[in-house]
UniProtKB/TrEMBL annotation:
This is Flavodoxin family protein. InterPro entries: Flavodoxin/NO_synth, Flavodoxin_CS, Flavoprotein-like_sf. Gene3D superfamilies: 3.40.50.360. PROSITE patterns: FLAVODOXIN (PS00201), FLAVODOXIN_LIKE (PS50902).
Amino acid sequence: MKALVVFESMFGNTEAVAREVATGLAPYCTVEVRNVDDADPVVADDVGLVVAGGPTHAFGLSRPRTRKAAADQAVGPLVSRRTGLREWLTGLAPAPHALSATFGTRTATPRWLPGSAARGAAKRLRARGYRMLAEPENFTVHGTPGPLTAGELERARRWGERLGVVWAAQVGTRR
Ligand SMILES: Cc1cc2nc3c(=O)[nH]c(=O)nc-3n(C[C@H](O)[C@H](O)[C@H](O)COP(=O)(O)O)c2cc1C
């Protein structure tokens, strides 16, 4: 069985989280990590777990105008330049054979800011018939460009490991 980790990222923080999640999952399955720019809207038959992650923008998944705002603040080119998780999920074909999980990044302060890309992504996956393996998870960054808060990469790896354990228990997969 295979897991597909699709990420959207402006400044690289969500990409770093996605790669740690994949490392955590790796003992349990083959893992493919894809930038949403290059992600196929059809999930292959051998993919049993779809993990989707993106940055929280304006309390939810990014939109073209928030990605433009991110580009205006970036010192270099954005990591995801062509599309966003919202658009990918909207075009995603149902895959009754696959489970899914979502994560997002967001600012650590102010703590009271509502909204999460992870929750928005989970809502869209459920609407397309995907069953969730875990609750949406959030990881925090300093300010808008990051870096990630101390310890978040380790937490991302552990979250990936937990997904692997729960998935293996459900479908009996182990590499
Ligand atoms: C236009 C814009 C809107 C944002 N809105 C929010 C928000 O509503 N809540 C929040 O916690 N973080 C918000 N952020 C901060 C992002 O979540 C942060 O930049 C992101 O987690 C960094 O991940 P990345 O490097 O993968 O893009 C916003 C950032 C941008 C650029």
